[in-house]
Amino acid sequence: MHIQMLKSKIHRAVVTGAEVDYVGSITVDPELFEAAGMVEYEKVQIADVETGNRLETYIIAGEPGKGEICLNGAAAKLVNVGDHVIIMSYASLTPEEAKTQKPLVVFVNEKNQLTRLTHYEKAGRLYDQEAEK
């Protein structure tokens, strides 16, 4: 048996675009999704902090270093440019693996530049690898 567990997330990224006339997906700066351990075409869940809307789609790479977060296709109707979103990826783990899973969290600033990279511990507390050094 496997269970779905949070693998990683990009926390409170700012939506920079919403393109209805597009095939689908979310365009993300690859520097951000790679820092979160995500890969292009990976299925992700998006939560809009301002509206409460949630949706699932897949990642496509934008231009590195540009901070792009653009919802495409029908998903563009569920967000507004300037909204904050949480982009979450999941992994299928055995119950034993799930006991030690510590999701990776990428924090960004208002320009969608990485400001902090950390892990969750149990009960939702953050674990900062930098503090250990």
Automatic annotation (TrEMBL):
User: Taking the first listed entry, what is the main subcellular location of this protein, grouped into a coarse class?
Assistant: cytoplasm
Q: Supply the EC number(s).
A: 4.1.1.11
Molecular function via GO: aspartate 1-decarboxylase activity
List required co-factors: pyruvate
Q: Name one GO biological process term.
A: alanine biosynthetic process
Question: Matching PANTHER family, A to Z?
Answer: ASPARTATE 1-DECARBOXYLASE (PTHR21012)
Q: Partners and quaternary state?
A: Heterooctamer of four alpha and four beta subunits.
> What's the protein here called?
Aspartate 1-decarboxylase
> What is the source species?
Streptococcus gallolyticus
Write the lineage as a comma-separated list.
Answer: Bacteria, Bacillati, Bacillota, Bacilli, Lactobacillales
